[in-house]
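Table S5 (text form). Sequence records supplied for joint modeling of the four-component complex.
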Amino acid sequence: MPETTPLWHPEVSEISLDKVLAALSDPYRRRVVLDLAASEGTPLRCAGFPIPLAKATRTHHFRVLREAGLIHQVDHGNGRTNTLRRDDMDRRFPGLLAAIVAAGPE
Amino acid sequence: MPETTPLWHPEVSEISLDKVLAALSDPYRRRVVLDLAASEGTPLRCAGFPIPLAKATRTHHFRVLREAGLIHQVDHGNGRTNTLRRDDMDRRFPGLLAAIVAAGPE
DNA sequence: CGCAAGGTACGATAAATTTCGTACCTTAGG
DNA sequence: CCTAAGGTACGAAATTTATCGTACCTTGCG
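The corresponding C-alpha cell record, covering 212 residues in total, follows.
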C-alpha cells in the first residue's frame, strides 16, 4: 500500500482566478491560507485550524481550497497535512497572495 | 430637484475583504473593474460594458460592485456613470487591485 | 486485536447567488 | 408633448454554496 493516497490538484496553468477569489472570499478559508502562509512551508494538519464547524464542513472548505489550487494536501490515512502553494500562486497571480496576507484576518 | 440621486456606497473603513473578493470572483464583474482601471478615472456608462445579459442582471452586477466598495456610481436619471474606487481600495487593501489588474481577463 | 482520532462520502436541508420578465421611472431630444 | 434609451424594483425560478448527520475508512497505539 502506498504511504499516501492521491488527491486531485490543479496544474499551475489551470488555476483559475475565479475559483481562487471565490475560495478566498470565505473568512474561514482565508484564515487557513493566512495560517499556512505564516507557517512558512511547514505542513499543518487540518485538525489544527480554529474552525468551529462540523467535520464534514471542514472537509468541504479544505476541498474548495485544494481544488482552487491554493493548497496542497497529502493524505496520511488518518490526518491530512496542508501546505500553501505559494510559489505556484506567485507564478500564476503575482502579488495576489501578498496582498491577501497583508490584509490579515480582517 | 438634485441633479443626481444618492446611492449607497460603503465608507473606506467598512469595505470588507469578503465582499470585495466575492465581487471580484465573477468574470463579468472583474471585466468591469478591468475596463474601469484602464479608463484611468474617466467615468464609464453602464451601457458601455460588453456584458451579454439582461438589463436587470446587469443592474445586479453593478450593485454588487458598488456595495462591495469597488466602484462609485453616479445616477443621472437615464444612465449611470461608474468609476473605480482606486485610491480607496489601495488604501484599504494595498496591492490587491494591482494584482487583479495584472492578472487580466484570464 | 480493538479503540480513538482524523477525515471522507453521501444525502439532505437551508441559504445565498445568478438570471430573467415585467412594469415602471427619469432624462434627452425631436 | 411624446418617445426612445438607460436603469430600477419587484418577484420568481434555477443554480450554487454552506452546513450538517450518519456511516464508514485508515492509521497509530495500548
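Note: The interface with chain A takes residues 16-19, 21-22, 24-27, 30, 93-96, 98-100, 102-103, 106 of chain B (CB under 8 Å).
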